[in-house]
Amino acid sequence: MASSATAFGRLLGRLGRRIFPSNLLGLGAGLILCALPIALQAGEFASMVMDARSGQIYQEENADARVHPASLTKMMTLYIVFEAVEHGELSLDQEVTISANAAKEPPSKLGLSAGQKIKLRYLVRAAAVKSANDAATALGEAVSGSESAFAERMNRTAKLLGMTRTTFKNAHGLTREGHLSTARDMTNLGRHLFYDFPEYYNLFSRLTADAGVRQVGHSNARFLSNYAGADGIKTGYTSAAGWNLVASAQRGNERIITTVMGGRSSAARNAKVAELMDFGFRKAPSNVAVNKPARPPYMGRGTSATNEMLLAGAASKTIRMNLTVAASPIPQPRPGRAPEIAPEQEEILVAMSSDILVAVQAAQAQVAAEAAAANAQAAASAAAQLAQAQEAAKAQAIEEALENTTTARITSISPTPRPERIELAAVQQITAETGTQVAAIDPSGPEVVTRMSTSGGREWGIKIGTYNTQFAAEKELLTVALREMNTLSGALRKVTRGNRGWEANFVGLTQESADLACRKLVARGSDCAQFGPS
C-alpha cells in the first residue's frame, strides 16, 4: 500500500504540472490532496514523553486524539500472547498451522504459506522484530480461533489496561475503519509491556532474530543503533497513519518512553523521537520511586465476563466479574468467524469503562487485603514456631549444664550459643509452604557452608547487594528468594564478608538463569550483578 501511494503521488505531481501553471502548482496540488480519500492522507501528529519509572508525563501533544496506530497494534497482540503463554493457553514450542487468511496478509510479512506449520516462538519473533503481518494474524488465530474473536479479546484487555480511547479491529494494525488509538494509550501499553513481561522485553531490542524459516531484521534498526540507550519498542507505518514509533531508552537510573504518531517520514519521525527523548532525560531526576502500573486481572479466552458486565451494567451498574477460566494448553479453533460486537453494545462498553475499571481495582484491593491478612497470620505462626524451637534449644542447654556441674550451688548459668542455622532451613520450609516472609532471623551462630554442585553448568551466580550486617544480607536473600521462587529455583543463598561489608549472593545458577534473574530483578527496581566461574 505504501508503494502504491508513492507511485500515485508521483502521478499527481506530473498531472499537476500539466494542469496548473508553475505559480499555481501548490494551490492545485492542495486541491487535489483535499479530494483524496482519508486512507491516502497522513495521520494527525501526536506525541507523549513519559518517565517509565513513575508514569510522570513530561510532554504531550494531541495525546488523546484518536489516530491510526498502524503496527503499534502488534504491541497488544504480543502482550496477549505473552499472557496466554504465562497461563498455559499456549506454549512457545507449540506448532501453529497457518491459515489462508494469515498467509494472504500484505507486507511486511514473513512469507508463510497456508497449511504451513511453524512454532509459536518464531511467530512472536517475526511480529516483534520484523513487524510481520502474517505472523501477527497467525498469533491472533492461535489464541482465539479467529481474527474477529481475537480483536474482541484485544479490546477487552485494552479496557482493563485503561486504554479508554482505543478500539482494535485486527491483530496487525493495517488500516481499517474504526481501528484507532491515541499516543497516551500506546505509551501506557509500552510501559505495561516493560513491567508486566520483563522476561520477553529483550525481543524488542534485537537487531536480527531467527524466525524459523529465515533470519529477519528489525524494523527500527536505525533508531536502535543510533540513539544511545534505546532498547525498543515498536514501529508502525501506513499511509493513513504516517510514521509511528513507541520508543524506550535507559541511561543510568532513568528510563524514558516516547511516542510519536503521524510522522511525515521515517527520518523525521526518528529525529523527533530523539529530540523528545533528550528532553525527557533532561527533565527526569536520577532517583525516583518506581511506581509500576497495576497489572490487569487475567480474563482468559472466554467472553462470559464481558457479557455478564454488559447485563449487570444495563440493570443496575453493579458489575459481577467471573474470573474462573478453563485454560487449555492447546486452544480449540472456533468454527468460522465470531460475530462483531454490535455498535450499541460497544457504546455501552465504552460508557461503562470507568465503572468496570473501578470494580476491577476494588476487587484487586480486596484480594490484596485478604492475602495480606493471611500472610500476617502465617508469619506470626512461623515466628511462634521459631521461638519455640529456640526456647527448647535453650532449655536443653541449661539442662546439660545442670547435669555436668560439680558445685551444689549454681551461681549463674552462662548463656550458651544458639543452635546452628537450622532455623534458616525451618523458616525457608515454612515460608515456601505459606508464601509468607519472616523478618526475625537469628544473626548469630556459625555460618553453614554448603558445597556448590557444578554439574549441568550451574557455575554462575548473582550478587544482589552489599550490607552492613550479616543479618541484613541474609534477610534480603530470603526476601528475594521468596519473591522470585520460580526464577531462583535450585539456587543457593551465600553470604560472604567483603571489603565493604557483607555480600548477598545466589550461587549454583546456569548462565541463562542468572541472566534471567538479573533482568527480572532490575525490572523491579532491584540491584543485580552476574558473575561466572572465574
Task: Tag the structure with descriptive keywords.
alpha+beta, Beta-lactamase, 5-stranded antiparallel β-sheet, 4-stranded antiparallel β-sheet, disordered N terminus, protease, Peptidase_S11, D-alanyl-D-alanine carboxypeptidase DacF, cell wall biogenesis/degradation
Average pLDDT score: 78
- The percent range for helix content is 40-55%
The largest sheet is: 5 strands, antiparallel
Tally of DSSP β-strands:
13
User: Largest sheet, order of strands side by side?
Assistant: 2-1-9-8-7
Q: CATH superfamily name of the largest domain? A: DD-peptidase/beta-lactamase superfamily
**In CATH's first tier, which class of the largest domain applies?**
Alpha Beta
Structural overview:
This protein starts with a helix and ends with a strand. Residues 1-41, 303-308, 310-341, 405-427 and 429-455 have low confidence and may be disordered. Helix 3 crosses helix 6. The chain has 4 domains: 2-36; 41-292, 3-Layer(aba) Sandwich (Beta-lactamase), CATH 3.40.710.10; 348-396 and 420-437, no CATH class; 443-531, Alpha-Beta Plaits (2-Layer Sandwich). It is an alpha+beta fold and 534 residues long. A 5-stranded antiparallel sheet has the order 2-1-9-8-7, sandwiched between helices. A 4-stranded antiparallel sheet has the order 11-12-10-13. It has a two-stranded antiparallel ribbon with strand order 3-4. The chain contains 15 helices and 13 strands. The protein has helices at residues 2-19, 25-34, 73-86, 100-103, 120-130, 133-144, 147-160, 183-196, 221-226, 266-283, 304-315, 343-404, 422-434, 470-483, 511-523, and strands spanning 46-51, 57-61, 95-97, 117-119, 208-210, 215-217, 230-238, 242-251, 254-263, 460-467, 492-497, 502-509, 529-531. The longest helix has 62 residues, at 343-404.
